[in-house]
Automatic annotation (TrEMBL), chains A, B:
NCBIfam families: pcaR_pcaU. This is IclR family transcriptional regulator. Residues 68-251 form the IclR-ED domain. GO terms for molecular function: DNA binding; DNA-binding transcription factor activity. Residues 7-67 form the HTH iclR-type domain. GO terms for biological process: 3,4-dihydroxybenzoate metabolic process; negative regulation of DNA-templated transcription; positive regulation of DNA-templated transcription. It comes from Shinella granuli. Keywords: DNA-binding, Transcription, Transcription regulation. It comes from the Bacteria. Pfam families: HTH_IclR, IclR_C.
Length: 251, 251
């Protein structure tokens, strides 16, 4: 790529949008400058452009994003066939097992939820399409990392900010690489309270007709509802059915 | 705003993202140029910038958005307290009445879903946070338009592409303005198969502690489940409770 093919103002503007986030709903020009590393004048121009286009509101001091910004993420969700294709299967699966079911894809060191059928909320965080979790400690993340060439999976693990969310969280690269090998062999990943105490989840890869892993499917359940063994005996068969049904459908 | 405060490359780039959408998941440079009105060279530079930053994938001919683009919409969803605040109420309401419940806000002539608790899917379209519907023919849209000064509501109605989705859809500006007056008096809007045959929905405004309408709440139900009268007698009382519970909570 030649440097002249790069629209610097566009790249900076996208960084400004990403500066907004949880616990940072209202930002000043100074806040955005700090958050993005852009100089104040550039941050200001990007923010004013967002306001002029209706993607942000400005009260003279603080900027906040408006719902118009959802058009950008929605461009992906409505353009990509994956969420539409999997949603009916997720709905049926979630209803059948009485637990939440989700589909996600890998984006860097994180997984991104692209579809979800929720039963009663059991996690402390609210997951919707677009939500992110660190891949290394999420069942869908383990499945997606296990599907990568080993060197690539290792690089992602090493680049991850590996916190022990609970006393059970695996954080050592070697332990994680061994876990990926187990996942490849068994065809599923089971997370037993590694992300959050009281929560278990099980995931399988979703392959397309050519055998390439394009996404992961999971079921999450309160630990009080299902032991680790229950997760496998109760939920895995229904997940295998969805996996098989989707294989010829996914591109 | 001075012209020098506007980052043209940023504005063009955002238009390029919005060019992707349903039925347009994969676009060539020419497609994007046509869709946005940008010249080919500009469209190309914006697309290559998206690809360079990982927001798009490029196979040498077609561009498609990647899940990274969801970060942009998610910046709003996670930054804005509204979705988080209303979600537990929506979950409870949806479970209580056995129907889908949603919250949306107005964006131009459309409503945007910011939170949703879905029961079995009844609409032909798949609604998730970020989904849009024309305000004039959606129950939440009627509630939000009814809360505006009349001249403003009329301007939005007149700017709307008012199609008769079904034989029941109100499309005449005068009929809609009368409907808004009814909504203001009764405190709720009822849509009886105006958006889609077989679907009814009822909406109420959500006010903040200062009495300003900040969003709308609705319940949608298959016509076979509930007559228009049932919508009011069965669902409205539970919706009124949510409305009252949220009033002190909403900013």
């Amino acid at each position: 790529m030649r440097e002249t093919d790069f629209v610097g103002g566009f790249a900076k503007g996208l960084a400004v949008i990403e500066a907004f986030g949880e616990a940072k709903p209202r930002l000043t020009i100074t806040d955005v400058s700090k958050e993005t590393g852009l100089d104040r004048a550039t941050a200001r121009r990007c923010l004013l452009t967002l306001a002029e286009l209706g993607y942000a509101a400005y009260d003279g001091k603080f900027f906040e994003l408006t719902p118009k910004i959802l058009r950008l993420g929605h461009a992906y969700l409505s353009a990509t066939p994956l969420p539409r294709l999997v949603q009916p299967y997720l709905d049926q699966l979630s209803e059948k097992v009485g637990q939440s079911a989700s589909v996600s894809v890998l984006d860097g060191v994180e997984i991104v939820y692209v579809a979800r059928a929720a039963q009663k909320r059991v996690m402390s965080i609210n997951l919707t399409p677009g939500s992110r979790l660190p891949a290394y400690c999420a069942s869908m993340g383990r499945v997606l990392l296990a599907a990568l060439p080993e060197a690539e999976a290792r690089a992602i693990v090493e680049a991850s900010d590996r916190k022990a969310n609970t006393p059970y969280t695996k954080t050592e690269p070697e332990a994680l690489m061994e876990e990926f090998a187990r996942v490849r062999q068994s065809g599923y990943a089971l997370i037993d309270q590694e992300l959050e105490i009281g929560l278990r989840s099980i995931a399988v890869p979703l392959e397309n007709a050519r055998g390439r892993v394009v996404a992961a499917l999971n079921i999450g359940a309160p630990a009080a509802h299902a032991s680790a063994e229950d997760m496998v005996t109760r939920y895995l068969p229904a997940m295998r059915e969805v996996q098989a049904a989707l294989r010829p459908v996914l591109a």
